[in-house]
From TrEMBL:
Residues 219-297 form the Flagellin C-terminal domain. Belongs to the bacterial flagellin family. It comes from Falsiroseomonas selenitidurans. Signal peptide: none annotated. Its main location: secreted. This is Flagellin. Flagellin is the subunit protein which polymerizes to form the filaments of bacterial flagella. Residues 4-137 form the Flagellin N-terminal domain. The lineage of its organism: Bacteria, Pseudomonadati, Pseudomonadota, Alphaproteobacteria, Acetobacterales. It holds the Pfam family Flagellin_C. SUPFAM superfamilies: Phase 1 flagellin.
Length: 298
């Protein structure tokens, strides 16, 4: 229809150009963000899944940070227990000497002082086994507590059980403080030869032990604690490693879900730019069509 009020060709060209501009806006958004799904408008279902995956990744990262703290206290405790275990070797040597009935007088006093010094050293090793104010060694003055670490994004926990310091030393009243000193007087020993031999042996006659402990009982407690915390430390290491691998897997899945194929988007962008140029020219030509009507009035 020859009309200057209605230009059907221009209307069609304009609609096509608008569609091209809309597609170009989408493609430019993908190129600029690197994401196929940048917000809920792009793909509501995919965006909801992506947000859940991001939350899981954040929770896993936090879990690993918390497990790092658990690893710190475990390693600190194991370091202290290793020193205690090394001291047990020295203690046994001194007990052997004290078990000899020929050792008397000042010589016995000297060995008893060595034994006391070694026990007090053990007490201080136990008292120094703290990390960021926490400890897995329980005493009257050092309130060690079980630790439950969050191990995954669901909030599941792993419990590390504290041990009683009194089982790890010959001093029944350990009273070790966080500063590594005894709250009460230092432990002092005055072992007889019979008591020393009983501590080293099976102690068939329990009365001969008095208030003292079997060497094997204390050594077993130290070994058990080292085994327990060593296993806990290995588990924490394995869980941290697994969480890292899981984070990588989640990141890969998230990328497959929402990342844009930039090579494809680049090719599409060039195509749309050409379409936009052609659409602009087509609209310009359609807008010029009514000018031909002027020749009818010349």
């Amino acid at each position: 229809m020859n009309s200057i009020n209605t230009n059907s060709g221009a209307l069609v060209a304009l609609q096509a150009l608008n569609r091209t501009n809309d597609e170009m806006a989408v493609t430019q958004k993908r190129v600029s963000t690197g994401l196929r799904v940048a917000d809920a408008k792009d793909d509501g279902a995919a965006y909801a899944v992506a947000q859940q995956v991001r939350a899981d990744m954040s929770a896993l990262t936090s879990a690993n940070e918390q497990l790092g703290g658990s690893k710190g206290i475990l390693d600190t405790t194991l370091a202290g227990l290793k020193k205690v275990s090394d001291s047990m070797t020295e203690i046994k040597g001194v007990l052997e000497k004290l078990g000899d009935s020929r050792v008397t007088g000042d010589e016995r006093d000297g060995y008893n002082q060595q034994f006391s010094a070694l026990v007090n050293k053990v007490n201080r090793f136990l008292g120094d086994a703290t990390y960021n104010g926490s400890t897995l060694i329980t005493t009257d003055d050092l309130a060690g507590t079980d630790i439950t670490a969050v191990r995954n994004e669901r909030g599941d926990g792993y419990t590390i059980t504290a041990v009683d310091a009194a089982d790890l030393t010959f001093d029944d009243a350990v009273n070790v403080t966080e500063a590594g000193t005894t709250a009460d007087a230092d432990y002092t020993a005055a072992l007889t030869a019979e008591e020393a031999r009983a501590m080293l042996g099976s102690a068939d006659d329990a009365a001969s032990l008095g208030t003292n402990k079997l060497f094997s009982t204390v050594q077993t407690a130290v070994n058990n604690a080292m085994n327990q915390f060593g296993s806990d430390s290995k588990y924490v290491d394995a869980q941290v490693s697994y969480n890292k691998e899981k984070l990588d897997a989640l990141e890969g899945g998230l990328g497959a879900l929402i990342d844009a194929d930039l090579a494809k988007e680049s090719a599409r962008l060039q195509s749309l730019q050409i379409r936009q140029q052609l659409g602009t020219q087509s609209l310009s030509m359609a807008n010029q069509a009514p000018q031909a009507l002027l020749s009818l009035f010349g």
